[in-house]
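Amino acids appear as letters; backbone shape is given numerically. Here is one record.
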Amino acid sequence: MKYFKDKQGNNISLPTESLHEYNMEDMYPLPVNDEGIPFNSYTFNGSEYTPDTTANKDAESEQSQTEENRKARAYLSSTDWMLLRELDGGTTMKVEVKELRAEARAKVIETKD
């Protein structure tokens, strides 16, 4: 499969073996990643499309932050019982645990997930 954008801005996907059947004069090939899938974001300079690497890096960064959030929230959830025990008048939470919980809370940054 090959991916194109026509002059009207429509995305078009065509089977590779059928390309000779189409008028390719008004179509521009879209850049694809290593798996052959078009990039989500690209720029057009009037004659060709190029991937917008900034958008791809932003997506990778957001994915990394989402994973960091997941780990931090998992730690907070796993130690919530200690906080509740302390608040309920039971055993005081260890200082080290309180510090680690504060670090975990600081790592959580809200994303679009």
